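[Discussion] Sanity-checking designs against the backbone

I'm trying to build intuition for which residues belong where. Below is a structure token string of 208 positions. I'd appreciate it if someone posts a full sequence so I can compare it with mine line by line.
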């Protein structure tokens, strides 16, 4: 299954893609005029690293910048009653790494899928909230899903593996281009290639 890239990522030049990123993040990083989603990438960075194998209250705050929120009951499951299980699954996923370097298609028992299944079993946590929480912990490995991005990329049925295959095609050409676009927009390295793809697709899909 292949993805459908939006016009800013099929054009010969990077100008339109760079413009979308700069509009989202502001003309200077987190400067005036940025979308609230820009704060997702930088919220509580020290805790994000230190607590990479457990969900925290900072993670629940971070995803609110992406226009979703976890209800009180779900927060209790994530942070208290099922915290040990989520820590176990995050540990099994392993450290953050670039999705482009994942050579194999996911199998049903892959730790990343087990983690998503466990998250989606939490009350009021669906696909979008689950992937945003996962991307908070593994931003280079987990692509965020929402209805806009899924529609733009044609990944409503299956999201992660088609993106992985697209990133790996042609010796990683798309992955390399996303990093180039990030650099041209003046954004820091902690904004992953997946996040660049997500923002460009979301901005294109909501401004057409």
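Best answer:
Here's mine. Compare freely.
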């Amino acid at each position: 299954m292949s993805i459908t890239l939006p016009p800013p990522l099929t054009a010969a030049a990077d100008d339109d893609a760079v413009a979308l990123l700069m509009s989202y993040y502001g003309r200077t990083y987190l400067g005036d005029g940025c979308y609230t989603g820009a704060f997702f990438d930088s919220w509580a960075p020290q805790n994000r690293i230190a607590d990479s194998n457990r969900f925290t209250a900072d993670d629940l705050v971070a995803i609110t910048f992406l226009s979703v929120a976890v209800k009180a009951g779900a927060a209790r499951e994530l942070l208290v009653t099922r915290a040990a299980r989520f820590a176990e699954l995050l540990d099994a996923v392993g450290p953050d790494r670039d999705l482009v370097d994942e050579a194999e298609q996911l199998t049903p028992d892959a730790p990343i899928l087990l983690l998503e299944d466990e998250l989606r079993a939490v009350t009021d946590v669906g696909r979008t909230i689950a992937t945003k929480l996962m991307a908070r912990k593994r931003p280079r490995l987990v692509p965020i899903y929402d209805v806009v991005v899924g529609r733009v990329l044609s990944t409503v049925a299956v999201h992660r593996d088609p993106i992985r295959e697209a990133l790996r095609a042609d010796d990683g050409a798309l992955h390399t281009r996303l990093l180039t676009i990030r650099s041209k927009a003046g954004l820091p390295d902690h904004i992953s290639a997946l996040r660049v793809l997500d923002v460009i697709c979301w901005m294109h899909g909501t401004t057409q």
